[in-house]
């Protein structure tokens, strides 16, 4: 299976002020997702060099024992003290996933390995369980990976929380289409009807130049029981990207401002070499978050 890359563009501050607990959850999940996302939407330059040889009984046993260890000792709050462990498990899962891709499912051992990967992924990332696009599925990780359009590139904009967000998004979209001439498809992502009501969606879709735009309710993609995305906050950003159909993603805040086509970001040397391009936010709210600017 060929692997693509993920691009995250952070160019503005949060529009809403989520509870501190949600911020911590967002950081925790975003950190762990980004560690493994290079495999889910992947990068061919980032490989562990697994062979295509059939998996041996000993190798499968070792992986299964490690997965059992993870299952019997789940990562628990406070999450700020368990970043390292989440990272280690995500790294292991990524290696198993790549191995499973090379082995395939034609053999019994291969199918067992895929089962271990699915089970471990759901335990580490509970929001994958009960994937809303396919209720009752036993392979939500595989389903999610199949939802990506091969070779696709696009823009993802989380929008919601009020009138201001709708106005910002409208300005950004019109600027991208009418001023800069960008032709990248756009997904506007929101967390339920209360986050971005139909009236707001209609206002955005009715704008002059609002072409090739799709609205995605993230609550129809992932199980919100543990995420609490409907309660608001910037934690939606990571899941907006993960739930996108694009293999290569430019993730934008609604109040981003561009002075040239965003397509140029895909040709940046750092992105092409590393598979990810990150930006510091502009220094907003210095006095509200003084510690961030000291």
TrEMBL record:
The keyword Transmembrane helix applies. It is a single-pass type II membrane protein. One of its GO terms (molecular function) is alpha-1,3-mannosyltransferase activity. The keyword Glycosyltransferase applies. One of its GO terms (biological process) is protein O-linked glycosylation. GO terms for cellular component: Golgi apparatus; membrane. Keywords: Glycoprotein, Glycosyltransferase, Membrane, Signal-anchor, Transferase, Transmembrane, Transmembrane helix. It comes from the Eukaryota. Its main location: membrane. The chain crosses the membrane at residues 21-40. Belongs to the MNN1/MNT family. PANTHER family: ALPHA-1,3-MANNOSYLTRANSFERASE MNN1-RELATED (PTHR31392:SF1). This is Alpha-1,3-mannosyltransferase. It comes from Fusarium coffeatum.
